[in-house]
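The freezer alarm interrupted the setup, so I double-checked each line after restarting. Inputs confirmed:
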Amino acid sequence: MDAFLPFVPYLVIGLMLAIYLAIVPIMLIVERRVSAWVQYRVGPNRVGPLGLFQPIADALKMMSKEDIIPLHVNKWLYIAAPALMVFPAFFVVGVIPWGFITVGGREIWIQIGQTNIGVLYVLAVSSLSVYAITFGAWASNNKYSLFGGMRSAAQMISYELPMGMAIMSMVLVVGSLKIEDIVNFQIQNHMWGIVFQPLAALLFIATAFAETNRTPFDLTEAEAELVAGYHTEYSSMKFGLFYLGEYCNMLTNSIMITCLFLGGWHIPFVNDMGFSPLTRDLINLGGFAFKVLFLMFFYVWVRWTLPRFRYDQLMNLGWKKMIPLALANILITAIWLAFV
Amino acid sequence: MAVNVKNVSEPRGKSWLDNTYVIPILKGLGITFKHLFKKRDVLSYPEDKKVLPPNYRGLHMLTRDENGREKCVACEMCSTACPADCIRIVANDSGDAWKDGHENREKHPKVFEIDELRCIYCGMCVEACPEDAIDMTDMHNLADYTRADFIYNKERLLGVYDEYIKRHPDRAQRRDGLHKQMKNSSYFTVKDVKHSDEHGSVH
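Predicted 3D structure, all chains:
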């Protein structure tokens, strides 16, 4: 068993990359089928059994379409933008924890690198995707794309603030920026984050929707409003890369919501049930995966429930409603911690 | 003159909780969740086909009389009536060959072509025909490879008739008893209008 120890980091890297790359085809088919079922339609069910091979068809379509670079675009930015979208999405994979496994008395963390600033790192790196959208919009040399891109960049920047502040109140309670510490705090106190910080949870979930440009905050990609916003001029694999970046951002945000507010890899009574350590850890990991996948389903569910915000309503909500609420939350948390 | 200005930007009577819309959002989520489990009203073509009414206006056919010849007397009323100008008729004098018994047909069409791409499927030709010679079937799967293949000549249109009456023997003489056919057709007797085994194909 000890002979495997040098290989474990590589296995963990492979596993995390596999998870992130696999979520895209899963989300492609889940999103289309669930969207259809919510709308009383059926969705794609021809390609494989129940349409499960549809992502293969989509991938082949995206790769085989003609890769056009229009003459009127700014060539370097045009090519750089999709790559820049995928870069932060995968860069952040380095610190995302997926739990731990106890094998042969050793705890192996399914996390590529441990840092002391986990939450801060995730916030910082995921803000980099604003560059991709801005570059894409500017390079397209198209006034509608530019509008869409500018609105999207403004939206993402203005919702970073409430997101950071919501995380801040959790960090105040736990006292550490490490994601593992936050999850352990929830495990030790037998209380999920959403119970002792409900306002922060609500704010974080709402800003997570705004960060990934999903409905109800998807004015920038709304077909009826702006053709397709900042990715109008993109075809084939470049468009595919924007899509990939968006789904990977959704996955990162889902994992963050799960770790910070839904107890991470903790299922209420499993730890006391007397399973062997490996079985207990595998059940906990299964619970974590279930929570993350449920949140991904929740993204699709909300998409077809809520109407889209108008741009001024969106900015109003971000600056005038969410930031004061987040600040008030931090204030109340700090007072509680200081005097109770 | 004083002007009364009424501020209508915010609805009245909204409480603090109403302004966050949390409760309506949760209700909406419940409704969309229920939709996931309801029965879908979706027709899975081509496994399920819709039942078409007897007067459906699809591909044309030229009807035959008791002797198996076409009923058309080349009066050109259909091509005159056609708004899309898609029927081409060249008449021929029948001479003595077509005089038998009670029938005394003076003309018959040498060429009868309908360009099904130009056709707008309005049915004016059917209404104009005095002989019940031209009618429309329920065939709508007309895909083909070249534009020339869509020009249906007389033999092809008669072939359509032969195909159609194999599937609907009661519709060979359409104008007689149209009301009776409509009442007895599966369109009005079958409860589930989605399932039909009876769509013909051109190929």
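Quick read of the result. Chain B touches chain A at residues 22, 25, 28-29, 31-33, 35-36, 38, 40-42, 44 (CB under 8 Å).
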